[in-house]
Design goal:
six-stranded parallel beta sheet; EC 1.1.1.22; NAD binding; UDP-Glc/GDP-Man_DH_dimer; Rossmann fold; UDP-glucose 6-dehydrogenase activity; binds 1,4-dihydronicotinamide adenine dinucleotide; oxidoreductase; binds uridine-5'-diphosphate-glucuronic acid; 2 domains
Length: 455
Amino acid sequence: MKITIIGTGYVGLVTGACLAELGNDVFCLDVDQKKIDLLNNGGIPIHEPGLEEVVARNRAAGRIQFSTDVAASVAHGEVQFIAVGTPPDEDGSADLQYVLAAARNIGKHMTGYKVIVDKSTVPVGTADRVKAALQDEISARGVTATFSVVSNPEFLKEGAAVEDFMRPDRIVIGHDNTAEGEKAAAKMKKLYAPFNRNHERTFWMDVRSAEFTKYAANAMLATRISFMNELANLADQVGADIEAVRHGIGSDPRIGHSFLYAGAGYGGSCFPKDVQALERTARQYSQDLLILRAVEAVNDKQKLVLGQKVIKRFGADLSGKHFAVWGLAFKPNTDDMREAPSRVLLRQLLDAGATVAVYDPVAMAEAKRVLALDLTPEELARVRFAASPMDTLTDAEALVIVTEWKAFRSPDFDKIKTALKQAVIFDGRNLFEPEVMAEAAFEYHGIGRSILTRT
Ligand SMILES: NC(=O)C1=CN([C@@H]2O[C@H](COP(=O)(O)OP(=O)(O)OC[C@H]3O[C@@H](n4cnc5c(N)ncnc54)[C@H](O)[C@@H]3O)[C@@H](O)[C@H]2O)C=CC1
Ligand SMILES: O=C(O)[C@H]1O[C@H](OP(=O)(O)OP(=O)(O)OC[C@H]2O[C@@H](n3ccc(=O)[nH]c3=O)[C@H](O)[C@@H]2O)[C@H](O)[C@@H](O)[C@@H]1O
């Protein structure tokens, strides 16, 4: 099938590459000339395991092309995926300017029938606005051209995006209950047939419910995390181990084990903005989503917990003190720094006067870019970008772990102890066992793991 992807960002690139891998003829459009030039020169703008190989294979086979040519992109695809960003607006609601601009561009150039697929995460009712934008442009040209708008939200996770896309838990497709809507659904069915031949994992629904499903999924996952983080802080107080509690409750199939890890708070480009956007949608209908407001508030507080533990241990004035920080990306296997808890930790340590040495296996370049925006030149001068995890440790009072990269899971504790000024570890992702750390003579501060300091 001939497919156009509008927006060659995270989701657009993965969607385009995976659909090309399945034999479709894919045209990826972006407004960012630099991104398109990079892709046309064999580069990949994001770090995502397996993606480079899929893109390279399909480029060589002539199944994927990258361009900024809007007219050509509209002419190409019988199915046009809108996969542009929906960042938070000033009031937290989803900013739809990119989605609507993409729709208008299609309307300006389309001639025959097109299926327009909203792949971006968009508030309930957006498909109606996309339809109106398309129709405005078509009417302005005085032509007749028909289209259907389908909602097909994306559930992939960064760091496992190719795998998630190729082996989805579910595919949600919202379409109108009209002849045109059924025609669009038939195209989507054909497109997704290779993923699940019997369509046992496809959920067909109306457009508004599909739009809502995406926010409900992210809000539920964020809720689980904030719930566990709040309990972890209480566990610290009462002398319980949140990891034991996690096993204890996760074994109940009604609860399940996933997304129950307490830590330094959730980050990334999606949970923070989608929780906020759903709250704002509710407010438009005079409804207050109390649970989600709490989820957001708990997460904002949780991002401070690691830094507060350091300050509690070493004092509010950290001038003259140096710390090692492992992990900068908002989660492992990505270089994405959007809403990363590490940014909050660095702000706390630098505000208290400390110097830091930081290391991340893949996010160093992105961290340099982002921290140059977050920090003043004086603050940035107190950050050293180290060459390896061990290189961060020299002269550090303590090691602070923010991201649970695999490479940090089995370090040489003897070497760490020798290199650090004091054998103190703050573990924002509960990578290690408190008992093991106690045996190795480390002072260990996890999240919700104070069982050994119980009196
Ligand atoms: N990043 C993720 O893991 C996931 C993101 N989503 C959702 O997918 C959407 C896209 O997210 P990302 O891929 O992370 O965004 P992104 O910011 O990485 O990429 C968006 C791309 O769209 C381009 N763009 C903007 N306006 C355009 C236009 N009119 N025509 C062509 N290109 C245009 C931008 O230049 C950029 O390259 C968002 O709604 C997000 O919530 C959904 C699931 C997972
Ligand atoms: O809409 C989106 O963009 C995507 O948002 C999340 O994916 P992502 O943000 O890539 O990453 P997650 O693995 O969900 O992690 C998000 C944050 O939660 C944190 N987290 C996750 C799980 C957990 O148990 N505890 C926890 O603190 C992670 O460290 C990370 O900071 C969802 O998992 C995807 O299904 C969804 O498609």
